[in-house]
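In practice, a research group might receive sequence data for several interacting partners and want a quick structural hypothesis before committing to experiments. The following worked case mirrors that situation: the sequences arrive first, and a predicted assembly follows.
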Amino acid sequence: MATAETGVQAASPGTGEAAVRVRDLTVVYATARGELPAVAHVDLDLPAGQITGIVGESGSGKSTLALALLNAVQRPGRILSGSVQVAGVGDVVTLGRRALRQARGGKIGYVFQASQSSLNPLKTVGKQLLDLGRSHDVADLRQLIREAKGLAEEMGLDPVRALGSYQHQLSGGMRQRVGIIFALVLNAHVLVLDEPTTALDMLSQALVLGIVRRVHRERGLTTVIITHDIGVVAELADRLAVMYAGRIVEEGRTEEVLASPLHPYTAGLIAAIPRIVGDPNRSRPLSGRPPDLTTVPPRGCPFRERCPVAMDVCEVEDPALVEVPGGRRVACHARGRGVAVR
Amino acid sequence: MVAVDPLVPEARPRLPRTGFWSGAGRVVLRKPSRIFGLAVIVFFALMAIVGPFLYPKNLPIDPNAIYAPPSLAHPLGTDFEGTDVLALIVTGARYVLYSAAVAAVVTVVVGTGVGLLAGYYRGIRDSALMRVTDLFLTVPGFPLLIVLSTIWNFGAAPAMGLVLGLTGWGGLARAVRSQTLSLRERGFLEAARGLGLSTPHIVIKQILPNVAPYVAMNLLLSVTGAIYAEVGLFFLGVVPFKANNWGVMLNLAVFSGGAITSQNALIYLLSPLVAILLLTLGIVLFLDAMDELFNPRLREG
Amino acid sequence: MSGLARRLASRIVVAVVMIWIVASFTFFLVRAIPGNPVQAEYETLVSQGVNPAQARAETQVIYGFLPHQPLATQYGHYLWQLLHLNLGKSISYTGTPVSHIVLSAAPYTVILVLSGIVASFAIGVIAGVLAAVRRSTRLGDVLSVSGSLLHGVPQFVMALLLAYLFTTEWAIFPFGAPYDASIPVGFSPAFIGSLVSHAILPVAAYALSSYGGWLLTMKSSVVSVLGDDFVLAAELRGIRPITRLRYIGRNAILPLFTILALSIGFMFGGSVFIEDIFDYPGLGQLLLQSINRRDYPLMSGAFLLITVAVIVANILADLLYGVIDPRVRKG
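A structural hypothesis for the assembly, expressed as tokens:
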């Protein structure tokens, strides 16, 4: 496949203990043109107790990566190679069926987009919590419900009403909070949020993000937020990974990446954010369209066609994700050769 | 901006917009069963058109060969008068298919019309149309047809088709209405109205093409439904026989030939049954192709 | 008033209106029959030497209205009698009240049809789930094809084939009549056994003729629910496979209820064939007999009762739907 043959693939350096360690992960989808990678040779550490944001456009593979963290990539996709080591669980890629099921929800909580209905429309929240408890062999179901009510209260929901409701009786913001209850009620220590604020109104967004920050801190979670919204990451995440065409192209501490992006794509993403203050014309959208599975070029840097600093080498060689001074990683030929990116 | 990761953007092959007929041809040719289905339909259609010309107007009877077993002269044996069963099947096809075609057209026209109007207008007109539809759906069809036969002798093929069509459009009307409503939910109609398009234009040029695939499938389904209904009515013997057809054959085989309780009229009983089942099978197999053509969701990767 | 009760009430109002329309239809139909059977009956009686006043009275008893009154009066009288469940008197079963005859025939039809619906629904739904979940395996293909084929076979063809195969070719089941006439009627095992063995073929004919429809609809419904977000969500929460299957099944079954109404009408309508073929003394056979014997009061009664049975069964199906789907319940 089209990855670099040079350089040691460096994991996130200097972050202490990693709660989740992704190594050389490749996820492919079966298409009419054969199996094409949606996630290609990804190395990523999620440091324990920190919030990591994964940012990318539609089709960058970020949601597939999120599903792969639970070994739950849906057909016609599958994990082709690599490992996902989760502390206290092991490698979820090779885990047995039963152990994997216990890890999902038990050790790793997953929260869906608010616009997706993650609840069975025919059962109340409470009854589905009981199903969750039974599925995970919880001995004391009353205690489980008490804990769920506690979480609900913590998040500003009326516990009795929330648990007695059907999905269609909940607003978007309420659904999202109920989703967090489901993810955390079994004391998962890794929390994966897929577009947690998309399709929510501004007030609900702020509320949900506040709640995520609070439960993350109070429970000492390791949190991943998958989003297309750099603003969300800027507000919450300790670390930031930028994805493009199934690859991580830049990774580092959030404030450093935002302040001085090393990859032209990251720079473009930041420049594209409209500002509330100042000239709206200063926000420059990225030219071109993000590639999907079938339009990723088979060799060379996948970003080169939209890249303002593309060079000849970009046509033939896919840049490796390499560590640069300051505890950051970037995958760009231009950076390595001292070409100014901004 | 809502950025939902399309997990499988290109996994489901879409048929190109251009070349519908070549696409349709490919879908039909993809499975031998579909080719067979199409062949069966064409075969019976030809039988209905050409069949009656192949035999004399009054089929010869032969008192010496009553319920004769199959032979070279009578490949499917003979009936209670010694008439060749194969000739009865071939000449009977025209009535069956002609009236079924009339019924299917009436069903589709009324059902689609009512469904489109109800879905387009909503409100009072919708409820009124749907109440009428419910009435037609609720009152069981066969008993109604039998009762109707006491005041109206609808034995002639066009009349039969008309009656079957007029009593059988309810299901299609409901389905077309809900499809129209879902187009409406997608903001389709508001957009068209926003462009200042007239109502007839929106209904005929915008909505109809979107429900057309569904209607096309129902046209074929209505044909099978109408065949069952008419053959059934003749089988019961409540409608006077106008022309030779498969239902009359069944009636005579069972109630005059005693085919259920004895074996000598077996071929006479089986011949029309097999003809009906074969035609049905052909239509069902061919529908599978239409299903794939119009409903990509059922396509398996 | 709860949502369910309100829903029930509105359904009953609609049902009453429908019954009224069907009753009116049969009233005007009988009057439109060529040769006006009411007038004809009156004249037959007079020609048999009955004096005109008595003939008029007898005709009224039979049809529930008088031949010489204005139409509106006759119609009003007919509806008034109907309200008292008086459907007139049968001509062929001389003098027996129609309501009596149809009510004693109804259980045969209702029990057979409902057993057929329940059996085909249960088997078709389970097979549909399997066909959807295993849709890329041989089992899935076989199930789907069985559904398509059986879906295409009309009821009377199915009944004829079953009757021929299992009563003549292989005489496994008895033919005709609801029970063996040689066994005394009563709550004896022999009698009940006889009832059941005589009912098996007709019920099978009902069931097999609608099994394919349930299978195919359930299959496509399950395929569509499998793509719903909550199914993936349940998997990501580590919900047990059996519980997930229950989630999918219950959600996928909902669209089938909209077809249940159609199916109920279709099944009751099919009683005309199945009871004719198996010589089973239900409403369908009664309807046919009454037409052949020109017993129009009995025809109207049988037709009306078949329609009422369909309407009541539809209301039950609708209530069941309301119980399963909370969105309807609270709506």
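Before designing any experiment, note the following. The longest helix of chain B spans residues 199-236. Chain B has one domain: 25-57+83-294.
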